[in-house]
Predict the 3D structure of the following.
Amino acid sequence: MQHLASFVGGCWLEGRGAGTQLHNPATEEPLALASSEGLDLAAALDYARNTGGPALRSLCFAERGTILKGMAGALQGARDELLELGMRNCGNTRSDAKFDVDGAIATLLAYAELGAQLGAGRFLVDGEGIQLGRSPRFHGQHVCVPRHGVAVHINAFNFPAWGLAEKAAAALLAGMPVLSKPATATAMLAQRAMQVMVEKKVLPDGALSLLVGAPRDLPALLCAQDVLAFTGSGDTGERLRALPNVIRHSVRVNVEADSLNAAVLGPDAGASGDLYELFLKEVVRDVTQKAGQKCTAIRRLLVPAEHAATARDDLAGLLGNLKVGNPSDEDVRMGPLTNAAQLADVREGVEHLGAEGRLVAGGSKPPLPKGYFLSPTLFEFAPGAKADAVHAREVFGPVVSLLPYTENPAPIVAKGGGGLVCSLYSEDAAWLEETVAGIAPFHGRIYIGHPKVELSPGPGTVLPQLVHGGPGRAGGGEELGGKRALAFYLQRVALQGSRPLVQGLAKAGTPG
Amino acid sequence: MQHLASFVGGCWLEGRGAGTQLHNPATEEPLALASSEGLDLAAALDYARNTGGPALRSLCFAERGTILKGMAGALQGARDELLELGMRNCGNTRSDAKFDVDGAIATLLAYAELGAQLGAGRFLVDGEGIQLGRSPRFHGQHVCVPRHGVAVHINAFNFPAWGLAEKAAAALLAGMPVLSKPATATAMLAQRAMQVMVEKKVLPDGALSLLVGAPRDLPALLCAQDVLAFTGSGDTGERLRALPNVIRHSVRVNVEADSLNAAVLGPDAGASGDLYELFLKEVVRDVTQKAGQKCTAIRRLLVPAEHAATARDDLAGLLGNLKVGNPSDEDVRMGPLTNAAQLADVREGVEHLGAEGRLVAGGSKPPLPKGYFLSPTLFEFAPGAKADAVHAREVFGPVVSLLPYTENPAPIVAKGGGGLVCSLYSEDAAWLEETVAGIAPFHGRIYIGHPKVELSPGPGTVLPQLVHGGPGRAGGGEELGGKRALAFYLQRVALQGSRPLVQGLAKAGTPG
């Protein structure tokens, strides 16, 4: 069986021992083994810091952008192979796999383009120069310079290609070297993506490393100039943030964690017509794409009480008709969950929701004799009924709960405790204004569905131009958002002194 | 004896029991008692969230700026009384007390002016609108809205007026209510400042509360929409960041902690002339102002090896001639440390430095029979000598260590592990560029001393226009910096949808 090697210290190295087995989740067939045992993680971090860091800092933004373009080209050249791995190792339909792989390529290209725009500078100039005294001689200027550490990225199993690419794009463009740790269950795709980028020699030595298998004590080795970006469960995010070295050295940590994203049907949308149809279409796509294993997937539906029964019946019909099975079958619309542990966790979540709500479609009964499958599942709740689990537990699968509302639903949405995205389906400007005012502080993104916006990707798609992250339960992090993504990897420093000297020092920067 | 009351829930309330005794540190005379025992802290936070929050959010930036102007006016009206309290309760010389009180007033006025500039909006519009698809219909816009919680500010003993004001200015202007907790040892000044602002009725109900005495479990009561800003020791900062509720709910925490600020005499500055004289003058001021109890005070001096002996002798002379004593005596240039505990801590630090370096001036021997005094103290180190304590221990008093250097000193400066400010005294552009490149990622501010900049306040003064904070040991935080200060109190959210709807929602904002 294939042993997945890590790319650390500029070499491909296999860990000791058997490690963890990776499977095809549709067939339960073992595919590969991943181990990080015996690899010298401290040396891997030092190689990134001491070889990749200076190399990246010596380049300007445009040159770093060219690296990202090269990475995108390498992935594009291996696209079919990567899609096939997505279908085989991740249980993706071909459409799901494209969402991941093409998303990775598009995000790299978006940041390559940003690099070209930022041009010849090696750091960002932040804001205008400031006169600090009565005389214009005394001058201040903020600049944002790359940190001298390594960026460790710990990614989730659901987007092995995109997760690797979107985090690396921002760090590399900012001028920080990256050590990326894909989730083990779906590491085949991330590892192959790394291989093709190494084969194409698009990266400076030490700029990007990949650690396959368990992270071991990697996060405990980080120091003050390092940063840690994590996507995954809230529990793991908490453990990382509580590490003594992270707290002692003020290691910057960005967490993307649980999110109980809501979709709200506005009071004006009715239970028919374009807006209502858009709502149905986007909910069904969002709940079933990647079998609901998206941090941005809709978990809660808020529907005016008078339309709740119609929406319930329509959604139950649409979800119930969707073909679930092995993604190698072209008719299949939804594949399995990623592994046995995820299936068990989602089934447990379904039990929790079922203790308070009424099961309308799906449920935890296995729809197929083999593989980690779950049918698309819908719960409904009576108006004002107890729904504690709905607002507290992220069930990371094709599972959604319908909650009727009678007054402005912002307080119900806010019960989620902070989320990545909320979608609103309404054309009533006054209602939108009131609702947005109530929910905005609790979200990183608010998507307003509109039937006249052709080709809108729906709320579940993260675009490189907009920030991705959310307060509270969602981890309090922020990624992407165009240039905003660079801030995490940069240290802002105020330069203060005589105007010609300060202006001279800022000259090697680029207006940010 | 006076019992200091807290202003919480819109009322002045005294805590139970004797609480903690406050002293005149020059005479050891007891002045007042402070206790928070028995106060309902959860109710105090809820009052701020539910009364102060909506009141502030309903106001536009210009109106919030008017509140800050009113606060500045109230402090200005009581300035003499506040200065007298600074001299009596904080051991300040009159000049030290002005630094604190006038700094508070100036910072409030700077943010009042910013409020006027930001005008009629109630939140910030962040960046340009973004076309998200092929059609301009699909549109994105980031906005930054006030969080719906309370900002808890835990301040340090060294700046009771400025600490209260600079943190409150940013939060209130952003639209968040504040509960401020001054350090107990010097709480008389903060409490009187609060009294005069309440008497002048410049604040909406619930917008600003003051808790005097121990914080008890206040930080443990914070939730996802709250924020916590702390200035003080690194150890306390670590404890706050490790609180389970802070980690679980992603409570935003800003820490301003230890900082081993360095002043570097450039190789071109020589050991005479204007630049060298400026270096001496600013070092002496910075080491002795507020008896060295400033987070930005110079702790480490890096001097070219060939000038080390001259600089040592000159500084020893200047520091040794400085009159130390009760600030009520007008000849006195430096007062005592804040209390017995601080004096003991600083003496311990002096012992640590003395184990590796040579004492040139001062030392831990009491210069006066009564009061918490320490003489200005200078250590010197041989080139390349072991100086671990110099780079690891912040001695929070009038104590400084001189380290000779022979090569570019950036690596020595970086040994401090992250600091608030580093000052460079040089006019050599190439040397400055190399040194700034080496130290910038480790600092929040770099001050370049220049004899032609008249009225420069030196590196130790924090200006409202420039960020204040630093990575690593300094806590990884960021305050002030003009508009940048608001970000901590705002949630950035991407609005995404049809262009007219998104533009309509952003209309109530102000270009940030």
Chain A touches chain B through 81 residues (CB under 8 Å). Chain A has 15 helices and 23 strands. The longest strand of chain A covers residues 123-131. The two ends of chain A are 49 Å apart (CA to CA).
